[in-house]
Amino acid sequence: MTRHPVTLCGVELQGPVLNGSGTFDAIAARRAFGDELLEKFPFDCFVSKTITIAPRQGNPPPRLWETPAGMINSIGLPNKGLNGFLAGDLPQLAELPVPLCVSVMGFSHDELAQLVAAVSSRDEVALIELNVSCPNVETGTIMGADPSETARLLERLRPLTEKPLIVKLTPNATDPPAVAKAAEEAGADAVSLINTLRGMALHPDGSGRPWLGAGTGGVSGPAVRAIALAQVASVSQAVAIPVIGMGGIESGRDAADFLSAGASAIAVGTASFRDPAAGSRIGAELAADFGQERGLFAAGAH
Ligand SMILES: Cc1cc2nc3c(=O)[nH]c(=O)nc-3n(C[C@H](O)[C@H](O)[C@H](O)COP(=O)(O)O)c2cc1C
């Protein structure tokens, strides 16, 4: 198969397909598929699930609800915490045949600074993604929903690392292009979008109670694709740094649409739940059917 290498923030990738953070457990997949996973790894860069300083149990169950075109999740970022990740997961993720991006989230600028400094000191890590979809406990503002809050955060984190910093934008913001621009001006190397959109489902027993243990969750999958495409297009117009587009991508044609809208790379999330090899299929369809046709790979690098 012909691949189209891309350079993302100076990191060479064999193609433009990443996974959405939290949607592909490479360690569990290795247990299930053995070394075949490494031979046929579905992504060109692996993004870890988001880690926090302290271990988290995640949200109370139920945590998933299937919608007519996707799902709502309220997983709540269960993870082993920074030390558990560095000791337990990182050595295993370092064996993957593609560059590694570690996703981090903190409830204050100090927490994020600690995470970025610790992750940045590890050679196994090529890129760092900042999941800014959570509130700053000091200000109550969702870090990635407000341009000035995002700028202040980046000003704090930028001096701590020479590794590329990707800001993962939340679609639950009034003006995502303004947030992207603030991130760029404060030193971000790329932005990725979209994260999930806030949504809710009621219990099928008709009681009117929310189904999800946490009450609400994040909507993903084909239902959000049109919204994601519009946000990727408007953010791509607003910034010169690379944009990683995601939200309901299920085929090479969807991926080509996001690249046509201005993304430099794309990520596959919910589609991997139905088919763990979706990333490979989407990459192959993109290379075979759409990339050439639309001249998407002419420049080769971004
Ligand atoms: C079950 C699940 C878990 C997720 N966990 C994370 C996470 O840990 N960190 C993060 O930044 N995004 C997380 N996301 C959001 C995805 O990375 C992605 O931004 C979103 O689902 C849109 O892409 P998709 O429609 O292809 O799934 C999660 C999404 C799902 C469905």
Write the layout of secondary structure elements.
Layout: E1 6-8, E2 11-13, E3 17-19, H1 26-33, H2 36-39, E4 46-47, E5 64-67, E6 70-73, H3 81-93, E7 100-104, H4 109-120, E8 127-131, H5 147-157, E9 165-168, H6 176-185, E10 190-193, E11 197-199, E12 217-220, H7 225-238, E13 243-246, H8 252-260, E14 265-268, H9 271-274, H10 278-290
Parallel strand pairs: 3-14, 4-7, 7-8, 8-9, 9-10, 10-13, 13-14
Antiparallel strand pairs: 1-2, 5-6, 6-12, 11-12
The structure holds flavin mononucleotide.
Residues 20-23, 49-50, 73, 75, 77, 103, 131, 168, 194-196, 220-221, 224, 246-249, 268-271 line the site of flavin mononucleotide.
Description:
- By secondary structure, the protein is an alpha/beta fold.
- The protein is built from ten helices and 14 strands.
- It has an eight-stranded parallel beta sheet.
- Strand 7, helix 4 and strand 8 form a beta-alpha-beta unit.
- Helix 5 packs parallel to helix 6, helix 6 packs across helix 7 and helix 8 crosses helix 10.
- The longest helix is centred in the last third of the chain and has 14 residues.
- It is globular and about 50 Å long.
- The two termini are 22 Å apart.
- The model has no long low-confidence stretch (mean pLDDT 94).
- Bound molecules: flavin mononucleotide.
- Flavin mononucleotide (FMN) binds next to loops.
- Largest sheet, described in full? 8 strands, parallel
Specify the number of helices: 10
* Radius of gyration, whole Å: 18 Å
Mean of all residue-level pLDDT scores: 94
| Helix-strand sequence | EEEHHEEEHEHEHEHEEEHEHEHH
Uncertain segments:
none
Q: What is the strand tally?
A: 14
Overall 3D form: globular
Bin the strand percentage.
15-25%
State the share of residues found in helices, binned by percent. Answer: 25-40%
- The first-to-last residue Cα distance is 22 Å
List of distinct ligands in this structure:
flavin mononucleotide
Structural class: alpha/beta
**How are the strands of the biggest sheet laid out side by side?**
3-14-13-10-9-8-7-4
